[in-house]
Amino acid sequence: MSEAFVTLVTNDGYALGALVLAKSLRDVNTTRKIAVLITNEVSEPTRNRLREAFDVVSLVNELNTHDAANLALLGRPELGVTLTKIYAWKLTQFTKCVFLDADTLVVQNVDELFDRPEIAAAPDVGWPDCFNSGVFVFVPSAATFEKLAEHAVSTGSFDGGDQGLLNTFFDYWPTAGPEHRLSFLYNMNANQSYSYKPAFQKYGHLVKIIHFIGQFKPWHWARTSSGRVYAQTQEAPTHSEFHVQQWWNVFDRHYSTSAPPVSLAALPIGFSGNVMRIQHGEALPPRTAPSGPQYLADYGRSGSSPAPAKQYDFSNILHRLDVLIPDKFHATGEAGKAPQSPVYSSQATEQLQEISATASKLHSQIAELESGIQAGRYANPSLASAVHQEVNTAVNELAEKLRSSSTK
Ligand SMILES: O=c1ccn([C@@H]2O[C@H](COP(=O)(O)OP(=O)(O)O[C@H]3O[C@H](CO)[C@@H](O)[C@H](O)[C@H]3O)[C@@H](O)[C@H]2O)c(=O)[nH]1
Ligand SMILES: [Mn+2]
């Protein structure tokens, strides 16, 4: 009898999550095997890293086997990413498995989950009558896989993701016995509900699995030079820094002294890192293919489809910067537009020169960013808007400095 934890990785970005997840499982001394499903997109160096960390690395080749359900699916390529998760049912070398999203972190031993039946999962915080499909107990079976694939063709997914598929397939879950219902401690996510904080204070020490749901994953967070994480945008408020730090602590324990576990060039990293790369003249990571339905992106979830153009629009910021840089302002010669601003009539103090120099630097940085965004070098459109936000704040600060120095 062989049992395993299973995760899924369809690109190098999620691979980093899976590597840390695997280490977290070893850290809590699981006695079970650890398996990962990968797809063709995962690069060879990353596969090697995964082979080091996992007992089983299984390449799933969606939509090209010869059974009836898969043939039907060939006509529905949009279900591809959604469906990859159901390939877990094909791991029939195992008698029972626990699926874990690559964005989960195990902080206490959870081997007792293998005592649960299929399907066992925790309620989704957004709609508790559905289960969250980031952590679930299942029984591999070729027959169930076929039925799941047929179900995908006939019914589809009501949310475009695997959660909407699995919840209608296992529609008995809400009324099934207590053995099918996992405690929130096995799929805990920090959230905005008013009840979250006090409950976390009381029960937080009991948490066993943290799930970083949403678009911003721990590996997108920026860190200080001493390794502390810091929130970089208002778009990532749901993961408490505390948990993200826990994730990075596992990363540091296992990977910080070795070479980066996956090629950083392939990672949609945090925007602060991108700004630093630009400063050092490095190329930004290539844009990855959109990986989720539009509605997920709309909800700031796991999809990544192009963001509205306005998020990329730096022209207003550039214009304000031009005003801060006397040479530029006069060079662009916008006649009649506040040329006699009190700012420039005041004496050219050292401080003003400094402000102007900083503004120039920001200006060229933004120009680089803009061309990077246009060339599609941003893996994640939200990063562009995050950069936009950061630059905006910097310009505000400069303007404020300038105001206070010119009124002195
Ligand atoms: O490009 C992708 C996207 C996802 N995954 C894998 O699929 C999982 C699910 O995606 P994720 O970004 O973690 O989704 P969540 O933010 O957790 O969003 C929710 O919605 C998803 C779609 O229904 C469900 O799969 C999740 O369990 C549910 O928590 C990931 O952890 C990975 O294992 C990839 O390998 N590559
Ligand atoms: Mn997830």
From TrEMBL:
Region called Disordered, residue ranges: 285-304
EC category: transferase
Cofactor(s), by name: Mn(2+)
Single annotated GO MF: metal ion binding
Keywords, ordered alphabetically: Cytoplasm, Glycogen biosynthesis, Glycoprotein, Manganese, Metal-binding, Transferase
Listed GO biological process terms: glycogen biosynthetic process
Subcellular location: Cytoplasm
A GO cellular component entry from the record: cytoplasm
EC number(s) recorded for this UniProt protein: 2.4.1.186
Chief subcellular location: cytoplasm
Annotated InterPro entries: Glyco_trans_8, GNT1/Glycosyltrans_8, Nucleotide-diphossugar_trans
Reaction(s) this enzyme catalyzes, per UniProt: [1,4-alpha-D-glucosyl](n)-L-tyrosyl-[glycogenin] + UDP-alpha-D-glucose = [1,4-alpha-D-glucosyl](n+1)-L-tyrosyl-[glycogenin] + UDP + H(+); L-tyrosyl-[glycogenin] + UDP-alpha-D-glucose = alpha-D-glucosyl-L-tyrosyl-[glycogenin] + UDP + H(+)
Origin: domain of life: Eukaryota
UniProt cross-references to Pfam families, sorted A to Z: Glyco_transf_8
Family statement drawn from the similarity comment of this UniProt entry: Belongs to the glycosyltransferase 8 family. Glycogenin subfamily.
UniProt function note: Self-glucosylating initiator of glycogen synthesis. It catalyzes the formation of a short alpha (1,4)-glucosyl chain covalently attached via a glucose 1-O-tyrosyl linkage to internal tyrosine residues and these chains act as primers for the elongation reaction catalyzed by glycogen synthase.
Name the UniProt record assigns to this protein: glycogenin glucosyltransferase
Annotated organism of origin: Capsaspora owczarzaki (strain ATCC 30864)
